[in-house]
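Standup notes
- HV: blocked on the assembly model, inputs below
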Amino acid sequence: MERRRGTRKGKRLAPYLLGAPAAIWLGVFFLVPLVTMMSLSLQRCDSVTLACRMIWHFGEFPEQVSQFRPFFMRSLYYAGSATVIDLLVSFPIAYWIAFRAKRKNFFLLMLLLPFFVSFVIRTISWQFLLSDQGILLGTLKNLHLLPENFHVLATGTAVIAGIAYNFLPFTALPLYVSLERIDPHVLEAAHDLYASRRAAFAKVTIPLAVPGIFAAFLLTFVPGAGDYLNAQILGGTSNGMIGNVIQNKFLVFFDYPAASALSAILMGVMLIGIAAYAKVLGSRTIEEYI
Amino acid sequence: MSTVTEAPVAPAAATERPPARGTRRRWTYFVLPIYSAGVVLYLLIPIAVMILYSFNQSRSHLPQVTFNWQGFTTQWYKEWNQVPGLTPAFFLSLRLGISATLISTVIGTLLALALVRYRFVGKGVGEQVLFLNIAAPEIVLGSSLLGFFITINLSTGFVTLLISHVMFSVAYVAITVRARLSVFDPMLEQAAQDLGATPWATFRKVTLPLIAPGIMAGALMAFALSIDDFVTSNFVSGNVLTFPLWVYGAVKVGIPPQVFVLGTFIFSVGVLIAIMTLVNQGRRARQLAKPAKPARAG
């Protein structure tokens, strides 16, 4: 009797003991820093000693937004375009792998291959490819298919292309997960009820894939909007995104409150997105797409 | 991304559809495969550039990667460690990656066990935090961590890098292992315990071998994330340079070809391990499918 009660108590405690190391790590080094960030954004720091003190300065947020409006707009525009491109490009391949492909794991691995090459090197490779006299444009120019003064680098297009490339797997995988889950019997039922292939696709497949599409959107758009490496390497000097501002403020100008406020805004956008997902599609499902 | 290295053990039933209605396939049947192959090729382009240009000759005094093809050479492979600063950065990245992988694999696996095996107060919140951690833009992770380290007066360097790398890989490990655990039949553990095995023996002899592929996949993921990471590391590295940080710093002055050599090396090892894992899983799946007739789900 004594012993049984002991084990039952152990059973109750077990998940906490198992989860504790990871929970503490994430709590201390993920959640607490987020709170620190929020608090830093309300402080004022001495520009010489870098000592900060709390003054509850909420004005930082509107100030930063109005001062860096173009950077915010560019972030939204670049990440938004890249996400739309990624959704359009990866839906067919996710569909194909989920429903038709024989070697699913092989093709999923293919989608992940870019991750085996460093993010920085991938982006440099694109800089190579897209440079004015590089393999791609140089050849096309030599063949007189492109005008001599045509260039892609240092334009918004290059940044969008870079983001679209670097984040494509983050779009394709959640889409695949949602399509893979569709019970083929549901589609058969649609066919039995005389739905044409097109109608079944539009009225059954797509609606069932909506949670995956939304998760893919979040997982591509949010990191894409926060990215600054693509803008830095491919975008030249006049196409900076909000990430470039944050990085500069933090590491070059040591303006912690401003940088924290900008980061907090980015985080806020993401939380709104997740909240919208939970509201529309239920909060239980979103973790299933990671 | 949990799905990737997780081979579904059950044979994929949904995939083998009868080929359209008629006996002859319409041309449209080939559109998707060709399109998919095209996307995969597109994904491979920068990788091909990296590998190709690691063999490019350079005639300048200070060798740099150049756009023009100047002839084939294996010189950079022989002189892979001849660039001052690059080799230490590479080994630092390896050390950091291995340490971060070990820690995050252990604590992530334990978390996955807690999430799959038990119902407890706070489970839902925990899962939301994992999603938040994965979806958060890296710049937010990096800048908030730096703010935190400044606030608690911890000087940045290897330790802060290790802390951050474990922080962003642990969620990936947990969800990868969780995916493996959730297809695991708990009756197997029950059987072991009925046969008199202690909980620890059950875990070591039954649970661990069965979820080992998931743990392996999670560890691979963690290592890939760590050795690849630029944004977060850039914030918390202090004056320590990892491989990606070194490469980034070299962009303005021109990158030596050895960067592509080391990049090709990391890529090849990663691909090799991934293929080995896939082949191994395929063999296991076939072994499992042998005694019974391959179950057609439904």
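- HV (later): unblocked. Confidence is low (pLDDT under 50) at residues 1-5 of chain A. The first strand of chain A starts at residue 43 and ends at 45.
- Next: hand off to the docking folks.
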